[in-house]
Design a protein that fits this description.
The protein has 114 residues and is an alpha+beta fold. Helix content is 40%, strand content 14%. The protein is built from 5 helices and 4 strands; from the N terminus they run H-E-E-H-E-H-H-E-H.
Length: 114
């Protein structure tokens, strides 16, 4: 009797499950000018793109780049310097490279004006 009740409530046969991958907003970033999602790169792929953009990276170097320029090559949904935290952390720990992201509205520029 319990089996009959359970099968009537939950069904007794197999259900068809879609095997297509589901892309969520966390997996992709939408371009502000279009509705098509931009695939999110892995940290290693981002490092390769950054290295190609600046002409290579080497241990001990410091990369200073403007946020606007970085957004042009490695777009983010959140257009803030802190959205590159994982990239900065990975560069520092694994490659010994310091990434400094500057912006026109950053704290550094406000301190210089005072």
């Amino acid at each position: 009797m319990i089996k009959e009740l359970m099968s009537s409530l939950f069904g007794s046969g197999k259900t068809d499950i879609k095997t297509e991958p589901i892309i969520t907003e966390a997996d992709s970033v939408k371009d502000s000018n279009s509705e098509t999602p931009i695939p999110q790169l892995s940290v290693e792929e981002e490092i390769e793109v950054l290295a190609a953009h600046i002409g290579g990276i080497a241990s001990g170097m410091t990369i200073e780049i403007e946020l606007r320029e970085l957004l042009g090559i490695l777009d983010r949904k959140r257009k803030k310097a802190d959205s590159y935290y994982q990239l900065k952390k990975h560069l520092k720990e694994d490659y010994g490279v310091e990434l400094i992201i500057t912006s026109r509205t950053g704290k550094h520029n406000k301190e210089e004006e005072v």
